[in-house]
Amino acid sequence: MTYKKFDNIFFDLDGTLTDSAPGIINSIVYALSKYNIFPDRKLLYKFIGPPLRESFSKYYGFSSQQAEEAVAYYREYFSEKGIYENNLYEGVEHLLKELNVRGCNLFLATSKPYEYALQVLKNFKIYNYFKAIGAASFDGSKTKKSEILRSLIDDIGNLDLTKSAMIGDRLYDIEGAKSVGISSIAVLYGYGDEEELRQANPDFMVKSVAELLQLLL
């Protein structure tokens, strides 16, 4: 029998499987321009990972109504252009293929709305590697990684949590994993910095896709 560390593996999308920063940041710039806000693009990487509504409120003091409106502007650009300003990290397709061959059950757990996540997976031709997708709702009723993971795990049913792990690049992924009782793996090649991830105290930490594959196999 082929050994594998985890039977069930949950992947974050942005900053873990795909380098989606160009499209996300361009979409944020577009949304903020509607309010005559023109920030340094380097400051917008902190938007990648957490729910957009929270980020617009936290970093620009938007009211709930303004944040909702800003998300709508964001989606105007993202749905037409931003979703395609994106690339798979080198080695990701090989990683998914190897895990699939080893019999691992792969799931996606993303704060992107389901429709966008599905489109990204299909665009990169990696959709068939995943057994299910857990994603945010368009109306904002489910956006936190902990909520997304819990809902996905409940939908799957009969999952051995002791043989399950969440892989992501932000503290929200690590906190989400802890909240549902599964192992956590932080990747340093995404958008979260090392200090942020170390403070979240993941079970494992890797610097590259190649190192991630080595850990999982």
Q: Would you give an account of this structure?
A:
- The chain is α/β, with parallel strands linked by helices.
- The chain has two domains: 8-20 and 87-216, HAD superfamily/HAD-like (Rossmann fold, 3-Layer(aba) Sandwich); 21-84, Orthogonal Bundle (DNA polymerase, domain 1).
- Helix content is 44%, strand content 16%.
- The protein has helices spanning 21-33, 52-60, 64-80, 92-101, 114-123, 145-156, 171-180, 194-200, 209-216; strands at 8-11, 18-19, 87-88, 105-113, 132-136, 164-168, 183-187, 204-206.
- Helix 1 packs across helix 3.
The fold-level CATH name of the largest domain is: Rossmann fold
Tally of separate helices: 9
CATH A-level architecture of the largest domain:
3-Layer(aba) Sandwich
The radius of gyration is 17 Å
Largest sheet at a glance?
A: 6 strands, parallel
Q: Mind sketching the topology for me?
A:
Elements: E1 8-11, E2 18-19, H1 21-33, H2 52-60, H3 64-80, E3 87-88, H4 92-101, E4 105-113, H5 114-123, E5 132-136, H6 145-156, E6 164-168, H7 171-180, E7 183-187, H8 194-200, E8 204-206, H9 209-216
Parallel strand pairs: 1-4, 1-6, 4-5, 6-7, 7-8
Antiparallel strand pairs: 2-3
Helix pairs in contact: 1-3, 2-3, 4-9, 6-7
Q: What is the structure about, briefly put?
A:
With 217 residues, this protein is of the alpha/beta class.
Distinctive features:
Rossmann fold; 217 residues; 6-stranded parallel β-sheet; alpha/beta; DNA polymerase, domain 1
